[in-house]
Amino acid sequence: MNRISKITTAMLTGKKRALLWSAFALVILTGMIIYYGSHVKRVKINASNGSEYAKAVVTEIKEDYTGWEEGGGAYTGNQLVQVTVTSGTYKGQSCEARNSNGYEMGAYCRKGTKVVVMLSENEGVLSAVVYNYDRGTGIWSLVGLFLLTLCLIGGKKGISASAALIFTFVCILFLYIPMMYAGVSPFLAAVLVSLLILTVSILLIDGWSDKAFCAIIGTAAGILISGCAAGLFGMICHVTGYNIPDAETIIHIGENSRLQVGGVLFSGILIASLGAVMDVSVSVAAAIHEIKRNNPEFGRKQLYQSGIHVGHDMMGTMSNTLILAFAGSSVNTLLVAYAYEMPYLQIMSQYAIAIEILRGISGTLGVILTVPVESAVAAFWLCREKKGQAD
C-alpha cells in the first residue's frame, strides 16, 4: 500500500509540476506577444495638436438646447456643460465642455453623467469637447461577469477556457494586427496566428493527447479550406479588401504603412471561421476517440464512418450559426435593400451583399469539410498502433 501511495503521490507531483511549467510557458509566450505588439513602429497619421482623451464627470449644465427626437428615439442637440477631469494629465481640473449630442457622437449630459472628453489647452486655458459616454466600466463589468460565469459553471475546464479566450484576445490585438500593419501578408498572418491560437486553446482545454493532436490537425485543415475558398470566390466575384466597409480609411492606413489592403478581407474570414471550425473538429475528434476506446477492435473505415455520422448534426447546427452570424451583421444592408425595393441585379451587384455572402459561405464550407478531414485524421492516427488502442 505504501508503494502504491508513493507512486500516486509522485504522479500527482509530476502533474502539478507539468501544470506549473505549462502556465509559466503560457505567461512567457503571452508576454512576448504583448512586447512585440507594443513595439511595432507606427506612423502617426493624424496630428493630435496637443489634444488628449480623458474621463470626466459632468458637474453642471450651463446651457441646454437638446430636444427629444421622436423618429430617432433619443435626445439630440447642443449643450454647454462643466466637467471635472478624472483621468490623464489634467486629472482633478475643471473646465467647460461643448457637447454636440447626435446619434454617433456626444452624450445626453446630466449632472453626474460620466463621459469621455477631448481636452486641449490654449494659452493656459483648458477646454473640452464631449466625445461620448464613458462605457469602459460597463464593458469590463460585462466581460468580468462572462468570465466569472464561465469559471463557476465550467469548473477547471471553464478556467482553462477563460485562459484560452484571454490568450486569443492578446494574439489578435498584439500579434495579428501588428503583423499585418508591419507588412506581413494578411492571409499568412491569419494562418500563423490561427495555428497558434488553436494549438494553445486545445491544449489548455484538453491537454496533450491523441484527441488534441487530431483536433489541431483537423482545425488547421478547416481554416485553410475556409481561407482558400474565400480567396477563390473573391476572384470569381471580383471582391478584395479594397471593397470592404471603411475601405477609404484602410487604404489611407495602407498608404502610410506596409499594410497589404487587398488581403485584409480574406484574412478576416479565416479568423472569423476559426471558432466554429475548432468546435466541430474537437467534437468529432472526441467522439471518435471515445468510440475507439470502447471498441478497440474498430478499424479505420469504421471509425471514419462513425466520425461522419457524428458530424452530420454538427454540420447543420454550426453552418446555421455562421450563416446567421453573418446575416445578423448585414441587417442594415438588407433593410435598406428591402425599403428601397432594390431590383435583384442591383442587390447582387453590391459589394456589401457579395462580401457578406462570401463570408458566410466560405466559413460554412470550412465547417462542413472539417468533418470528413477530421474523421480521416482521427481514424488514421488512432489506428496507427499495432495493438489498435487509443491512448
TrEMBL record:
Keywords recorded for this protein, A-Z: Membrane, Transmembrane, Transmembrane helix
Spans traversing the lipid bilayer: 20-38, 137-155, 162-181, 187-205, 212-236, 264-288, 322-340, 360-383
Signal peptide annotation: none
InterPro entries with a match to the protein in the record: YibE_F
UniProt KW Membrane keyword: yes
Entry annotated with the keyword Mitochondrion: no
PANTHER family: MEMBRANE PROTEIN, MEMBRANE PROTEIN-RELATED
Name of the molecule in the record: YibE/F family protein
Species this protein is from: Qiania dongpingensis
